[in-house]
Amino acid sequence: MKKVRLAPIYIALIVLAAISVVPFIWMLATSFKHGPDVYTKVPSLLPLDRKTGEWSPTLENYEYVFDLSGLGTAFVNSVWVCLILIPAKLLIDALAAYAFARIPFPGRDKLFILMLGGMMVPTITLLVPRVFVTQELGLFDSQWGLIVPNIASVLDIFLLRQFFMSLPGELEEAARIDGAGRMQIFWRIIVPLSKPVLSVVTITSFIFHWNDLVWPLVVLNDPEKYTLPLALQQLATAEAGRAYYIMAGAAVAVIPVIAVLLVFQRRILQGIAFSGLKG
Amino acid sequence: MSRKVAGAAAVIALLAGLTACGGGSDAGDAQTLTFWMYQPRTPQAGQIYEDLRKGFEKANNVKVKYVQIAKDDYNTKLSSAIASGTAPDAGVLDQPLVSRFALDKTIVAVPDGTITESAFYKGALDTNLSEGKLFGLPLDQTTVGLFYNKKLVPTPPKTWDELKQISTQVHQADSKIAGIVVPKGDGYGAWMWPGFVAGAGGEMTDDANKKVLFDQQPAVDTLQMWVDLLPSSPRQITDADNAFANGLAAMMVSGPWDVANIKDQFPDLDFNVAPLPYKTEPAGNIGGENGVVFSTSKNTALAWKFLQYITNDANNAKFADAFGGYPTNIKAAEQTAATIEPQQAAFLEQLKVAHARPAVPQWIQVNDEIIAPALEKALSGKATAQQALTEAADKTRSLLGWNS
Amino acid sequence: MASPVLADRPAATPDGPGRRRRPGFGRRDHLVGWLLITPALIYFVAFLLYPAIAALYYSFTDWNLRSAPNWVGLANYTDLLFDDVKYPHFWKSVQVSLIYTVIAVPLTLVAALGQALLINAIRRGSNLFRLLLFLPVVTAEAAVGAIWRWLYDPQYGLINAVLGWFGIPPQNWLNNPDLVIPALAFIAAWQCGISMIIYLAGLKGIPLSLREAAIIDGAGPVQRFRKVVLPMLRPTTFYLLVTGVIAALQVFGLVYVIFSAANKSVTGGPEQAGLTYVLHLYLFAFRYDAMGAACAMSFILLVFIMIITALQFKFVKQEAA
Known about the structure:
CATH superfamily of the largest domain in chain C: MetI-like
Distance between the termini of chain C: 29 Å
Protein name (chain B): ABC transporter substrate-binding protein
Helix content of chain A: over 70%
Distance between the termini of chain A: 30 Å
Number of domains of chain C: 2
Number of helices of chain C: 14
Strand content of chain A: under 5%
InterPro entries (chain B): SBP (IPR006059)
Number of domains of chain A: 2
Keywords (chain B): Signal, Transport
Signal peptide (chain B): 1-22
CATH architecture of the largest domain in chain C: Orthogonal Bundle
GO molecular function (chain B): maltose binding
Strand order of the largest sheet of chain C: 1-2
Oligomer: heterotrimer
């Protein structure tokens, strides 16, 4: 009885999962095809020869995008920027959120509301003035220009603050009685208790910055410093009409993020669920 | 306690490190010339630029630094670099931007005696004019021609009537094949359109007398001709990726950049390129890039020397070829003509009769926001060609503040 | 990005009334507080507050990024709103963004809720399905654009091939002005993973006792959904609606990627059908030499977003029933 009722649910889920995943499979298939094999009347999810229908994959497209389009360099740049940016941002956001949640200094709440208001301004508005600030700091056209202007996030501070506020205060007081200072409490109590929300912030930050196109577009000039989305956008315009190269480039950009997702999936998905509203 | 200190120290060190480690790119010093250009299209093109650079460095005992940027992002980046005071010494500039940049003194006029004007194609040189003065040197030029699939179109059409006839025949013979990829009502289509208008004896504007002319008969006929091609060239077929190269469309209007693309990706396709079909006289549009010197440069003399170097008789053919266009220097073009592939000859021929875009600072906006939608309106059947163009011309007049 | 929590958690706040000065942390505690927020505060002033004030100033100027800004007072605002010669597509872009929002947001919410309900109904394999349905979220806009342009290809695209199995004639998705926005909205719904996860959390939070009570009352699955599940999910839906509308009104990256490389021109697709408000703003800032007007456009958008958000707070029910 139960099984019969579940069957349509599984069928629906399989269809939906297929809609989710097939574009990626098609991306991969196209990226392994020889140029002319891409244009077949009946689209093929496998790299097959257009005339004989035989299995005929190739790595040429990947070699091309890595060697010639600068995607290899861009990949290294993206990794480098994220490795510095994400931990630094996490630290700054968490410290600020801790102060906003727990330390009753004068003017705190007014300041917090001001910061939330700043969050409502569309980012596109801030683009050019931000370029000026970046320029004044001497960071224009450098990878630090990708890091410093993104070094904190009001949205993340907001999220972390909400979480810290919900932690029971007793532990903190007990630690205080044992003689712990603010920083000790932060590292020994707050951080270990906040792992789910910290991982949410880490992952969403990683996804956002790994994929960000607009800011690098205006701040970087030197192609040697390009990040992956920028290099991919460049590839997609330079090679317009060569879907196999573009799909190989897209695969290079997408696969690392999927890998991170697979590794951390439990933590991320539970974390995000946690940070949502309770029904 | 140590944790607390360490934490605070980490934050301070981080911030200090972040602000200290940056380094912007400034216009070069006296010995280094910074030159902005598009990203090379191919590794071979990149090598040509490198060889030219080394030749110049050796002869003048200086350094040249190329900054190579994707064509689509070039103008956005250049704008933010100029706004933030990091413009290069010299750079490549899309033709319609020259008059805009000249007007607000972002770039400097060509010093007298830098070049001999008669050494260049007139159409290409004219794209550097602003209020009668030259503000750049033409680096390369390009135009669009008629690509045709030899299997489907044995003899290319010379006139509009022949074009319509062949397109109809092709589509009638096989309804899965379109006659021609009709250009769209977008910025790109609006750039190609004036070449056809000139082929009917028309002009877009009369800059000197501040007149908008693209609502007159030649322009209306041109747009009508595009509309007439659509029944034999359905969008459903021609919007496919590489419709022409895949044999889905018998003809298309495109530039020399597609010759190499097609040869390399679709070796089986037997195709050639003919000059654009015309109504009353052969004509074409013109595109390409100019070399300009920015007013913030501390190296203007060296910058002009470099621009002279890449446009001279000996080097312009190499440079223009690497750029994907044709020489603007007449002597250099003769070298190119001698070695050119058959598919390329039509373009070079057509450049002799090419017409420069109106030298109006707002032209890009007129092109994108007024002409492109008007073309689309007529092509989609939402207005007649005459209605669409009358409305567009009126809007252009009010925008530019011209009376007629 | 991350999903912020709009409603404060009614949790233990140790610095509540009567505890303002807890013994032990001393007077230097204030200083520690300020010290901890200093880096974030520097960031806020340098990269949010100052740029916002600067942009507001530029919105009152005529500025092409190259020469000094020229004060014009309210002219940018009045011209944008009323001068359809200077800004012929301003209202068109407003319309495009509004239609996109009206289609994409509900589509995303329905897709997310549907997926969440299905996953919530099963046990075996629920982690796997959750993961697969989440995959599209993590993909870069540049890659999403490239992949979907290729999927939507009128001759070689997979979408038309699949529709063909059901006898639906091939469509010219990204080149038919009537289909551009639905095609874009479908991509948005494809990326509904974060909303789905949040809905799932909402579903898990519905007390079992409520459902059981409904079953005892003889309610069928449809009635249970309408009478119990949907009302209990109201806070979640409200949160997703508000943040979803804000994001949809600002959609830019995807359209930029889809229409720049595809058509060699960035003018927003066939008949400007894909010319969203922020794409239009971007063109004015960087293509048409009108940074002042672009800044004015962004403040018009800001005011609009604030009004829409306030209206939603006023007229949409947000408490669980």
